[in-house]
Amino acid sequence: MAATVTVSGLVAAGVLSGAGTAVADVAPQTQGGATATINGLKTYGEAVIHEDGGDQRVAAGLFEMSVDGGGTLQTYCVDLHNPTQRDARYQETPWSGTSLGTDKDAGRIRWILQNSYPQVNDLAALARRAGARALTEQDAAAGTQVAIWRYSDGAKVDAVDPQAEKLADYLEKSARNTAEPQASLALDPPAVSGRPGDVLGPVTVHTNAAGVTVIPPADAATSGVRIIDRTGKVITSAKDGSRLYFDIPEDAADGTAQLTVQASTTVPVGRAFASDSRSQTQILAGSSESTVSATVTAGWAAKGAIPAVSARKNCAKGGVDIFAANKGDRPFTFALMGVEHTIPAGASRTVTVPLLEDQAYDFTITGPNGFSHRFSGVLDCKTQGAITTRSARSHNAPGPATVGGTSVPDTDLAATGGSAITPLIAGVAIGLVVIGGAVLVILRRREQPGD
Question: What is the pLDDT of residues 164-195, one digit of tens each?
Fold first, then answer.
């Protein structure tokens, strides 16, 4: 019974703990790109969602994000039934880490983005293609968002404005599957390991930028760690396809180092943006010149296990993939969710940690010589998650927020602006209910005659 109470509380609260301490550095769980803060809806019209509980009128259109380091992004929502959190932080994310990864129509959504507003800013020409009399920016944004929702969420939704509705119908019928765009900037793999005196790598640069700046480890001057190319030359810049290596001095003490690459570029249309605050997933519609970056970690030791660990959300499998490699001469063993995993010397493995939809996780993987990597986040893979908010509203009205008219009672639509702490409170409450029930059972048994 104690085990049952523990597991119930764990799932309800949505937190996973692994081996190690909570003071470990948080390891990156993306392959790089842009990081931005959402500013809310900027250009939008109105739409009506038709559901069993009735119709609801919502805002539909373009969001704006501010990129860390400089730049602005325009995005549409691909997660209609989840709320948008005010000032939520977003990270450029592969489709596989969002609901788009399991959506057979994700490629059609990208086609819509490439063939509508704001990529097509000649609204007169766009109106002619759609058979509309004319389109304002608000109509174009609303019609585009409606068409996207029909594919991303399978929603029964119409634009309120007749001209916007014509655009939505045109885009929906014309959409064709297109491939997922590459990341604006990524490093592969995101972690490497080896022995002192070795050259660790290669780490391959993937980017649409003309060039990237290579920022060496902060303590490179004292540690002697150099970032070189395949010829052994120290490099400070690179381009798409470049291969980078960590040159570790032979007398270096066991340790780690981190390399960052940075560039200024436009983020490709169709890139997904996800948030660990359960704020609704976005997809890129337009980008100014923006700052993007990616990081790779290197670890080395003279003997024993020498692990390299990274993580990535995998919506197809409903969990987080842990990539673990061991360049040492002894096995690397770590525990996750009570299960022990062993990576033999010279081998690599992928371990998938299963999670519930909307479940937060926070676990740490430890190893020899002080090795410790912490991974945390929230699994958000479905357009209608296990956690919804019915009544909360955002003060800056990011969509979909009610616009005009009256909301239909008891609708399943998740209003925007719901607090991210709501799921945690609910989880704690459920855990307490389970514990309380267990206590009542114990007391009842004690009261029975003959016990």
Answer: 999 999 999 999 999 999 999 999 999 999 99
Count CB-CB contacts under 10 A for residue 428.
Answer: 13
Q: Give per-residue burial for 308-346: e unless 16+ CB within 10 Å, then b.
A: bbbbbbbbebbbbbbbbbbbbeeebebebeeeeeebeee
- 174: how many CB neighbours lie within 10 A of its CB? 15
**If you search the block for the tokens 């002619």, which residue do you land on?**
128
pTM above 0.85, yes or no: no
Tokens of 256: 């780690």
Which tokens hold the place of 341?
């995993």
Taking each helix axis from N to C end, the angle separating 162-174 and 106-114, rounded to the nearest 10 degrees, works out to 120
Per the document, the length of the chain is 451
Q: What is the DSSP letter of 138?
A: H
d(CA 56, CA 25): 44
CA angle 165, 166, 168 (to 5 degrees): 60
- What would the two tokens of residue 400 be? 């979909």
